[in-house]
Amino acid sequence: MLWRATTQRKPSTGSATSFNGRWCTRGHTTTTSLVGKVVNSAEASIAPPSSEQLRTLFVHSAVPFVAFGFVDNTVLIQAGDLIDNTFGVYFALPTLAAAAMGQVFSDTTGVLCGNTIEALATRLGLPLPQLTSSQRMMRISKLTSTAGSVVGVITGCCLGMLNLLFIDLGASERRRREEELKTVFEMIMGQGHEIAECERSTLFLVDKEKQELWSVHATSGVELPMLRLPLSKGIAGYVARTGDLVRIDDVYEDERFYSEIDKDTKFKTKCLLCAPVLSTEGEILGVVQFLNKKGGSFCESDEKLILMLCQHVGIFMAKIGQQ
Questions:
Q1: Phi, psi dihedrals of residue 79, rounded to the nearest 5°
Q2: pLDDT tens, 103-143?
Q3: Cβ 120 vs Cβ 67: under 8 Å
Q4: What letter would DSSP give residue 185?
C-alpha cells in the first residue's frame, strides 16, 4: 500500500519533471514566457539605425542591382532579337519563344558575371551603412535593403530597355514575310518562267515606307541577292506607279529602262514584259516581270499569261496579309 501511494503521487504545480512520459504544460509555458521577455528586452536595448544609415544602406543595396538589371535586360533583348531574326525566321518560331530563349542567355550571363558586377560596385567606393550585426537583423534594415534592391533592379531594367532604340523592331517580321512569300511564290514564278518560255521571271514587291521595290524571287538557274529598286526608276518602277502593262522588244531603246540592275546581276536584258500585281481593292502591291523571250519577242498570249499570274499572286498576298 505504501509503494502504490508513492508511485501514484502527482508532481506539484509548476514542476518541470515528467510523470508517466508527460510534461507539466504550465511549468513549460512559464519558462517560455520568461525567455521571450529576456529577448524582447535585449532587442529594445539595441539602438535602431538612424535615417542617414538607412539611406546609405538603401543606396548600397540599389547600386549593384542597377548593373544587374541593365545587363540582364540588355542580354535578353540583344539575344532575343538575334534568335528572332535567325532561328525564329527559319523555324517559324513565335517572338515569345525567341524572348524565352534570350532569357536563358540572360540568366546565364547573370550567373557568370555576378561576382564581377559586385566587385565593380565595391570599387565605386560607396559609403558603408556602418550597422552592427544586430541592427542588420532588425526589420527596418531588412525592409530598407530589400527596397533598395527592388528599386535598383527596376532602374537597371528600364535603362536596359534603351537597347530597343537601336534595334530594327520590324526586321524579323519583314524576314518572316519574305520567307513566306518566297515559299508561296516559288512554284508560281517557276511555272510562269517555264510556261512563258523566258530566261528569267522576277517578282518585285512595293515597300511604301521606303518608296522602293524589292524582289522576292528570280529564276535564272543561280541564286541572286535581294534586288532593291527605287519606285522612281526603271520600267518596273513605272508599272508600280501607273499600274500599266508594258511590253518592250528592245529595252535599251527605252529611256525608262534602268540598266544598273543588269550591271548588278550581270545579266543582259533584251526584251521585257511587265505587269502590276493588284489587291482586291485595286491597290498596287507589286510587279511581275518576264525577261528575254526565248526565240523572239513577247506576244499577246504572253500578256494574258502574265495578267493571270499577277491575279494569282495578288490572291496569295491577300491570304498572307490576313495571317
A1: -70, -40
A2: 999 999 989 988 888 888 888 888 888 899 899 999 999 99
A3: yes
A4: H
Report the alpha-carbon distance of residue 127 to residue 17 in Å, rounded: 55
Task: Give the residue ranges of DSSP H helices in the chain.
Answer: 2-7, 25-44, 51-85, 87-90, 95-123, 133-136, 139-160, 171-195, 234-242, 260-265, 300-321
Q: Looking at per-residue confidence, does 108 or 4 come out higher? A: 108
In the chain, the amino acid numbered 179 is: E
Q: Give pLDDT, residue 10.
A: 45
All residues at 6 or more sequence positions from 82 whose CB lies less than 8 Å from its CB, including other chains = 102
For 289-320, give the DSSP string: EEEEETTS---HHHHHHHHHHHHHHHHHHHHH
Round to whole Å and give the CA distance between 181 and 177: 6
CA nearest neighbour of 164 among 67, 83, 103, 74: 74
User: Rounded to the nearest 10 degrees, how much is the dihedral formed by the CA atoms of 177, 286, 254, 223?
Assistant: 30
- Residue 287 has φ and ψ, to the nearest 5°, of -145, 135
The amino acid present at 168, given as its one-letter code, is D
Name residue 288's beta-bridge partners: 203, 275
- Model pLDDT, residue 171: 81
Whether the per-residue pLDDT at 78 is higher than 90: the answer is yes
pTM of the model: 0.56
Which alpha helices (H) appear in 86-165, and where do they start and end?
A: 87-90, 95-123, 133-136, 139-160
Q: Above 90 in pLDDT, residue 161?
A: yes
In which residue are the cell numbers 508561296 written? 184
CA distance 67 to 181: 43
Per-residue model confidence as pLDDT tens digits over 185-207: 676 667 777 888 998 888 888 99
